[in-house]
Design a protein that fits this description.
Layout lengths: L1 H135 L5 H21 L4 H28 L5 H6 L2 H4 L8 H16 L4 H29 L11 H12 L3 H14 L4 H4 L18 H4 L3 H4 L9 H23 L13 H34 L7 H21 L4 H31 L13 H14 L2 H8 L3 H4 L9 H27 L10 H25 L3 H7 L3 H27 L16 H26 L6 H26 L10 H4 L4 H8 L7
Helix pairs in contact: 1-2, 1-3, 2-3, 3-6, 3-7, 7-8, 7-13, 7-14, 8-14, 13-14, 13-15, 14-16, 15-16, 16-20, 17-20, 18-20, 20-21, 20-22, 21-23, 23-25, 25-27
């Protein structure tokens, strides 16, 4: 019952809630409908208000439109009336306009006729107006002079076009030609006055900036004057005479620069100078170099000659300080001793001192300087009205006219020198200048091409051929020196066994080659001739070192073989004292091998030699030691046998000696005294110039022989082997006296 009661209560509650919810939903629906009706009423009111406003606005616009139409009708009437009036005015003005146009054309024609008449009068008056300036010349007022000349040219152009029969044309033409000649004369005079002589040494001392600075060649004012004249003449293609004048003056300057070198070269050229092969231009240059000197040039030359004193032609051509190099003898421990002999110093050559090297460098730098000056004088004007004419053609003509005779002289001298050297033959130090010339060509070939390539290709080819000929001479000089070593007289030997002249000259030659390391290997290259058929071509640095090393090693090997053959010349057939001759052989070879070893210790070419022979120093050291050993054997073996002491006598002789023993001891002392005296006399005539080596040989002799002799002398000196006259055997041969005699070996006292 309780359960049913709770269920009824629950159902009642649910029904009550549902009724309340239904009433709430109904009230919400009524409220929503009410709000919608209110919004519709409000919107209707708004629309009605806008409609009334639009009706009022429409009425206003209709009223305004009616007023505008009325105004438009009035304006149309006014404009129509105005248009009719304008048409009437235009009809009235047309005849007046036609008359005005006719008057304007008549006025223009009259002005043009008046201007033409004025111009014609100017042309007819040109000769009168310009006569004074033309007579005065271009010296004082060049710009004004050129302006007047332009007026003359304009007048000539007018008459040539309009009246070729006019007498005024003849007058003006004469004035023009006279003016051109005056400008050419002014150009020549300004250039002549501004072209100061310069010595070749001054050219060589110029820096690159100074060399190519045209303002350093001529004063700036002179350059501007020359430029003005050139610009004017080039624009009118009237520069033919300028080329000749320029070349004449500047050739003289360049000839002055290398005149001394040319004279010195002709003086030292072995073969007579063949003047038939020289061009007329080169002859003129030579005469110019010797005779046409200005006063300031004479003063400068006198001061130079006073400074040089009575120097020879070679001394006059010494290179600038630092350009040459000679090996310092003190760096070679052997050369200090040997190079005192003047015969070994003959034929030495200082790098950069040959006249042809100086001549070449001066000419190349002179041409570069002249090219820079021509480029400066022929600068194309910025103003296109002035930049008329062919400046490139003029530059080519100037360079050709100026450079060709100078280079022909230079080339012909080189060809003459090559021919003379080929006929005489070169080898050793006598041909060192050839390497100098080849090196000069190598260093300056780019400059030569830059100066001449666009000017005269034929001359460039001739220069190349001369360079190749000198290179071939250098190659032949090296191969000839090698051949000279092979053929050197083996019977010509120094009597004292000192270093042979062939050794010292060979090493001097090798050292001198190091100065030309950049070209030596290239000349020895197996493809040298194939590479140099038309142009000097040098091998790479790597190939050059390889071929140089091969050549130098071959020279040393050939030298060694020749020295060994020379050493045999010391032997005299059937000589009873052949041991002394063989000792001298050993001394001779030891001295020469030691000289080479000393060279290898300091020579700049040693690393190059070691490319092919890494152990060359050790090999020569061993050769020296071998000859020292041979010397000791040949010198002392016989005496060692003489002073040999039996074992029982080494501690002294006890008791009386038998007659045979006494005689044996007497014989030993006699033989020792006799042989040692002979040996001393022979050794005094032998020379070991290397002080260090000489001391070592002295020490070797003493350490080897004195102990043996001391044992002998201690054993028998007081043995009583001679009763009657012991002084006969013992005088002068005490151990101290023998030791002193050792010091007399090799000419030492």
């Amino acid at each position: 019952m309780a359960t049913m009661s709770r269920r009824r209560s629950t159902d009642f509650s649910r029904r009550t809630s549902l009724a309340v919810l239904a009433d709430w939903n109904g009230s919400l629906i009524l409220d929503s409908q009410r709000e919608e009706r209110e919004e519709a009423i409000e919107m209707r009111k708004t629309v009605e208000a806008k409609l009334r406003h639009d009706e009022q606005k429409l009425a206003y616009l209709q009223t305004t439109l009616r007023r505008g139409q009325h105004v438009a009708e009035k304006m149309d009437s006014i404009l129509s009336s105005f248009n009719n009036r304008l048409e009437n005015l235009a009809d009235a003005i047309k005849p007046l306009h036609k008359e005005t146009l006719k008057l304007n054309r008549t006025q223009e024609n009259l002005a043009e006729v008046d201007e033409n008449l004025k111009n014609i009068v100017v042309y007819y008056m040109t000769s009168v107006k310009t006569a004074k300036m033309m007579k005065q010349g271009p010296r004082k007022e060049l710009d004004e002079y050129l302006d007047k000349l332009r007026d003359i040219l304009d007048a000539i152009a007018h008459f040539e076009e309009n009246n070729t029969e006019s007498p005024e044309l003849v007058t003006l033409s004469k004035m023009r030609n006279t003016a051109y000649r005056a400008l050419e004369g002014e150009f020549e005079q300004v250039l002549d006055l501004a072209s100061e002589p310069v010595l070749g040494t001054e050219l060589l001392a110029l820096s690159q900036h100074e060399l190519f600075d045209a303002m350093g060649v001529l004063p700036s004012q002179s350059v501007r004057t020359l430029q003005t004249i050139v610009t004017f003449m080039v624009a009118r293609e009237e520069y033919g005479e300028l080329i000749g004048a320029y070349a004449k003056i500047r050739k003289r300057v360049v000839a002055d620069a290398f005149g001394i070198q040319l004279t010195a070269l002709m003086a030292v050229t072995p073969a007579p100078f063949d003047r038939r092969k020289s061009t007329m231009a080169s002859k003129k240059l030579q005469r110019t170099a010797s005779s046409r000197r200005k006063k300031d040039m004479s003063m400068r030359r006198k001061s130079s000659l006073n400074f040089l004193g009575s120097a020879s032609s070679n001394d006059l051509l010494q290179a600038p300080k630092g350009a040459g190099h000679r090996r310092t003898p003190s760096k070679d421990r052997n050369l200090d001793e040997f190079m005192d002999d003047e015969s070994l110093m003959t034929g030495t050559y200082d790098k950069g001192t040959h006249p042809y090297v100086h001549l070449s460098r001066i000419i190349i730098r002179a041409l570069q300087r002249e090219q820079a000056l021509i480029k400066r004088l022929l600068e194309v004007p910025v103003d296109p009205d002035l930049a008329l004419g062919d400046y490139d053609e003029l530059a080519h003509d100037l360079e050709y006219e100026l450079f060709t005779p100078l280079v022909e002289t230079w080339v012909s001298q080189g060809e003459t020198l090559c021919t003379a050297a080929s006929e005489r033959g070169l080898s050793g130090m006598g041909g060192m200048y050839v390497f100098d010339i080849v090196l000069m060509f190598k260093e300056n070939m780019a400059a030569i091409d830059g100066v001449l390539e666009k000017v005269n290709q034929e001359l460039v080819s001739r220069v190349q051929q001369v360079a190749i000929r000198f290179a071939d001479l250098g190659r032949q000089a090296m191969l000839g020196f090698h051949e000279k070593i092979i053929k050197d007289d083996v019977s010509r030997i120094p009597p004292d066994g000192t270093v042979h002249e062939l050794t010292s000259s060979s090493l001097s030659f090798m050292t001198s080659l190091h100065e030309y390391d950049d070209v030596v290997g290239s000349l020895l290259h197996e493809n040298f001739k194939a590479q140099n058929r038309g142009r000097l071509v040098l091998a790479s640095r790597e190939d050059s070192v390889e071929y140089t090393s091969r050549f130098l090693n071959e020279v040393l090997e050939t030298l060694q073989q020749n020295l060994e053959m020379k050493a045999r010349s010391y032997e005299v057939p059937k000589d009873p004292e052949i041991k002394f001759s063989r000792a001298k052989q050993a001394i001779f070879l030891m001295n020469n091998f030691d000289y080479v070893l000393g060279y290898l210790a300091t020579a700049p070419y040693t690393p190059v030699l070691q490319v092919r022979s890494p152990e060359i120093k050790g090999a020569y050291h061993q050769r020296v030691m071998d000859q020292r050993q041979k010397y000791r054997v040949y010198t002392w073996n016989e005496l060692v046998g003489v002073v040999e002491v039996p074992e029982e006598h080494k501690k002294g002789v006890s008791g009386s000696l038998s007659k045979k023993e006494r005689e044996t001891i007497k014989t030993k002392y006699s033989r020792f005294n006799e042989e040692f005296e002979k040996l001393l006399q022979y050794q005094e005539k032998i020379s070991i110039p290397n002080k260090e080596l000489r001391k070592q040989i002295h020490d070797d002799n003493a350490q080897y022989m004195l102990p043996l002799y001391q044992v002998f002398d201690d054993a028998y000196r007081h043995s009583g082997f001679s009763v009657k006259n012991p002084w006969k055997y013992l005088e002068g041969n005490t151990i101290t006296e023998v030791q002193q005699k050792f010091l007399r070996f090799f000419g030492a006292h």
